[in-house]
Amino acid sequence: MKKVDVLIIGGGASGLSAAISSKSNYPDKSVAVVRKEKQVLVPCGIPYIFGSLNSSDRNVMPDQGMLDLGVEIIIDEVDIVDIEGHTADLVKGGKIEFEKVIFATGSIPTKPKWLKGADLENVFTIPKNKIYLDEMHDQLKGLKKIITIGAGFIGVEMSDEMNKEGWDVTLVELEPTILSRAFDKEFGDKAEELLVKRGVKVITGKGVKEIIGTDGKVSSVILTSGEEIEADAVILSMGYAPNTALAEKSGLELNKFGFIKTCEYMRVENCSSDIFAVGDCAEKRDFLTRRLSTTMLASTACAEARVAGMNLYELSPCKVFGGTIAIYNTAIGDSAFGTAGITEERARQDNFDVVVGSFTGIDKHPRTLEGTHEQTVKLIVAGDCGMIIGGEVFGGISIGELTNTLGFLIQNHVNVKTLLTAQIGTHPMLTGSPAAYPLIKAAEIVAKKLKCRS
Question: Which pTM was predicted?
Answer without folding.
Answer: 0.95
